[in-house]
Amino acid sequence: MDEINALRAEDIDIDNNVIHVRSTISRGKEYKEFIKDGTKTETGQRENPISKTLRPYLEEALKRQKPNNDNLVFYDFNKDTVISTTQVNCYYQRICRSLGIPADEQHALRHTFATRCIESGVPPVVLKTWLGHTDIHITLDTYTDVFERLNHNAMDSLDDYLDTM
Q1: Among 67, 113, 123, 146, which is least packed by CB within 10 angstroms?
Q2: What's the CATH class of domain 1-104?
Q3: What is the pTM of this model?
C-alpha cells in the first residue's frame, strides 16, 4: 500500500521555503488510518524545497486550515479523522475522469513530478533526496527510460558547455 505523508502546519516552513517530511498516514488494525511518526525508511524523513509555483497554494492551505487534534493541513472533518490513501486515490481518479485523463492512482503524480525534474535538469542525486530514496540506484533504475530519452541531447549540452571554456 502506498503511504501518503502527513502534512502538519509545523512541517511547512514558508520563511525558509522548505517542507519537513517527518511522518506518514498508515493503516492499522481494522483498516483504521493513523499518523505514524517517521517514514518507511530513514531517508524518507527529509526536507524538500518549496517551489515558487507551489508556495502560494501552501500559503492558501495554511490560511484555510481548520483546527484539528493532529494540526494537519488536510483533514477529513466529516469523519473527524486523517485523510486516507484510499480517499486521496478516489478523489484523484474522479478529477482525472472529469477531465478525460486516464489515471490509476495518485502515485502517478510522484512519477510525473520526478520525470519533470529529470527533464528540467535536476541532478539524480538531488532527486533521490527529494523522493526519499535510500539508494541512488532506486532513482536511476525507476526512471531509466527518462534518462535514456535525455541521451539524445546530452552531447549538445556537453558541446555547449565546452564552448564556454
Answers
A1: 67
A2: mainly alpha
A3: 0.81
